Amino acid sequence: MLTSAPGVDPLAVEPSTTPPPPRPGSRVLPALLLCALMGAACVYVLPQGLQAQHLLAIADDPAQIADHALDGHFDSDIATQEIEAALRTGDADLAHSFLELARERQVALDPGLAARAEAAFADANSTRAGIESFAMGFIGGEPKDLPSFAGTALGDLFVFGDIRDAAREGSRMVRGEAADELVLGLAGVGLALTAATYASGGGAAPARVGVSLAKAARKTGQLSASLAAYASNTMRRVVDGPKLRAAFANASLTEPTVAIRAARDAVKVERAGGLLHLARDVGRVQSKAGTQAALDGLKLAESPREMARIARLAESKGGKTRAILKAVGRGAIALTLAALDLGLWILGALFFLFGLVSSLKAAVERMTLRYLHYAKRRRLARQQKFAAMAVRG
């Protein structure tokens, strides 16, 4: 029989065997609630963060930006509406551009509508229509399609168009009438580039084409205000205004060499680096996507950098460029969210993902700790029970 020391209760349990009280850190419910909140936040933020990361990855590729902008915003109904609207206004080129875009994106169209668009495009590019457009472009200098632009470009290349425009604006200034100094300056730059084109064996032709289109866009109101302001500011550094106005006030189509010489004296082409880059980009758009696409680009772009992006888009999309610019506008060349906003979405996604992982870790630790405390209390309770039975027995 077991005996105990005098003054000691045989049923007493050593202090070390007393089950520890539950620790505050072992409470699981707050950790689970935090997990739920972080999980709900991640469900919303993570897709946005992944989307932001994708957009930042394609930020320098206008073709991919355009494809992203078209996703979910270009379907059969939109394509049909745009083609019908273009046909009603007689813009067969735009209708055909939407037709090409629909085919590329595998958007179903009514066969009859597609046939109408094809027929209108073929008629607009027929020999008769081409001759008429060529003549209008050569005489008026306001291109609307490829044949009319060919006439405009030919007129400018043979200095007819530039002398006509420069003489008109120069004489208006001399008489004190309202004149467009930008058209006058572009005409002067065009004449100087014509001389450079002949001298370089065609090396300056892309810039020469771009200047013709920029001048036509200005005359027809299709040059954006921002690009017009940029070109005007550049002209002040490139063109000697008084000398050019005086030279062209009495310019004559019968003396083209005099006009070219005057333009070369008044225009400092070596100072027109940025303007020439802009003109080359316009020429690239025209060569890849057509005259109207170039004019649409000049109307949409707000800086030479944006015109360069439109040129890259045209090189990738070709004849579909007009439809893309019409369908999504500036969304075809620039992200709708700034890089800072996209970066914040990415940081937010990382923050909530880290919070979810941390809260899961804390919840698992607390559940494990709670279980260990529970198991320890049960074990100590059994030990107490056995000790008491041993004392009594």
Shape: elongated
SSE run:
HHHHHHHHHHHHHHHHHH
Which runs of at least 5 residues are low in confidence (pLDDT < 50)?
8-17
Largest sheet: none
Task: Report the mean per-residue pLDDT as an integer.
Answer: 77
Structural class assignment: mainly alpha
Count of discrete structural domains = 2
β-strand amount = under 5%
Alpha-carbon distance between the two ends: 8 Å
| CA-based gyration radius | 38 Å
Multimeric state of these chains? single chain
Helical percentage: over 70%
Number of strands: 0
Give me the number of helical elements. Answer: 18
Question: What does this 3D model show about the protein?
Answer:
The protein is mostly helical and 393 residues long. It folds into 2 domains: 20-59 and 340-392; 124-338, no CATH class. Helices cover 74% and strands 0% of the residues. The termini are close together. The model is unreliable at 8-17 (pLDDT under 50).
Structural descriptors:
single chain
Detail the topology: elements first, then pairings.
Elements: H1 29-57, H2 62-70, H3 76-88, H4 92-104, H5 111-124, H6 127-140, H7 146-157, H8 160-174, H9 181-199, H10 205-219, H11 225-238, H12 241-249, H13 256-266, H14 273-289, H15 291-300, H16 304-317, H17 321-328, H18 339-392
Helix pairs in contact: 1-18, 3-4, 3-5, 4-5, 4-17, 6-7, 7-8, 7-10, 8-9, 8-12, 9-10, 9-11, 9-13, 10-14, 10-15, 12-13, 14-15, 14-16
